[in-house]
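Minutes, project check-in

Agenda point 3 was the complex the collaborators sent over. CS summarized: two entities, 543 residues total, and the question is how they sit relative to each other. Sequences were read into the notes so everyone works from the same version.
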Amino acid sequence: MVAVEVSELVVRYGSLVAVDGTSFTCGAGEVVALLGVNGAGKTTTMSVLEGLRRPDGGSVSVLGLDPWTERARVTAQQGVMLQDGGLPPAARADDLMRLYGSLHRAETGDLLEAVGLTERRRTPVRRLSGGERQRLSLALALVGRPKVLFLDEPTSGVDVAGRATIRELIAERRAAGGAVIVTTHELDEARKTADRLVIIDRGRVVAAGTADELEREAAPDRLRFAAASGLDVVALSDLLGGHASEIAPGEYEVAVAPTPPTVAALTAWLAERDIPLGDLRAGRQGLEEVFLRLTSEER
Amino acid sequence: MSLRRVLAMARYDLGAAARNGEQLLLVLGIPVLLLAFLANVDVLPTGDGEPIDFLAPGIIALAVLSTAMTNLAISTGFDREYGFLVRLGVTPLSRVELLAAKVLVVLVELVVQLAVLLPLSLALGWDPSWDALLVVVAAVALGAIAFGAVGFLLAGTLRGLVVLAAANALYVVLLLIGGMVIDLDELPDAIAEVAQLLPTAALAGVLRDAFADRATDGRDWLVLVLWSIAAPPVAARLFRWAPR
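CS then shared the predicted structure for the full assembly.
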């Protein structure tokens, strides 16, 4: 069941098009990560989903509702963690939890304990560390066991243990059938947290799928190696049966499957010319390389 | 509208205000100090008659100003600056409920202020007439609406620190020329003419007449009513929930 649907979404700030025809979905019991560099349009997309901004084009649907026109019904079922926190410095975790419990008509139970803030419940927000604020913000977003969670950069500034806690709580919500959309520019975190990744660049979705699918589809198998600069890449292409190029001085890439015969042919070719081989790498690109490739094209 | 959510928000705001020393100083400390000091030390030109008869209604008007405008502007302005208003906007609390909670907080603070200022004024020798109590309540309500709208206007259009500076500056200026502690007759004519059009002078004037069992000045009512009708739509139109 689709819990969140974004269809051809367009958002403009004056003449600047911040979101330019973005489309994706998130199902119940699924975690989707929106990935992109700063300014890609992730937070703007989230703000439309959260009902904070009216789209200039396209449509969004949260649990079958329009978050702008059916705000009251959506907010009762959603949990939101804003990028900038939005927590008053003088407020204490206890007071905020009590307020949120009343607003959602829900028990806040052991949420502070779940995020490891029991002993800091009477501490003003201004005296909490950045990671503690993020965890408090997540606890507030989880009040009322929302069916949809929107988490904008939830692990930003959070230490390793805090990240594990946040991942665990997200996984719990997913297991309970909740739909979770997370924005991040931390690829490792996205891979660990999300079922599917949606890569956004300049307001457009440039790729979507699981991390494995993205690595496979966005960057086919190839061979990379280091050797003396100025090799005859045309001859190398003919020999190996795939386009070879010198992507940086002394760094080569050949668009071929890295089979043993291909590697053997390459090493033999280098040996015939008495050229030392360095840093031979075979296989698919990592997620980071895929991301950089997808988000740096046309720049 | 959910009364439960309104009460929850109001309780949170009142708790935050009670823990905030600056807010307590503004809504209680300064009015109490001014009343006690100026009633005992004859340093201000307060017109003919007993200083306390002039001061007590003026200090009540000052209390309404400090709570409904200055305090509301500063607390709401910083909530806006910190993104708390936006955060509340993604909860089930509607904007109308948030506004209702703010109004409720102002009312509670006014009751607390009056519970302190009235006995103190009586102890200082004030002997008001209570015959026109309804007039007093109506005037305080109109004043609170007008000041509250100005408070929201400041909070919803300026950055947090600018709100703090502007609200405090306006408070000091109105304290001096708003007809609350200094008689308008003692001000230069040009300033007095402008001051007569301020809601502070109008509120203080109505309160003085009402507590003295005199017929209230029609011009004061007109000024008060006009401010309370004109200011809220302007505030509602210009208020922005998040800083640009």
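Noted in discussion: The interface with chain A takes residues 4-5, 7-9, 11-12, 15-16, 19-20, 78-79, 82-84, 86-87, 89-94 of chain B (CB under 8 Å).
Follow-up: revisit at the next meeting once the mutant set is ready.
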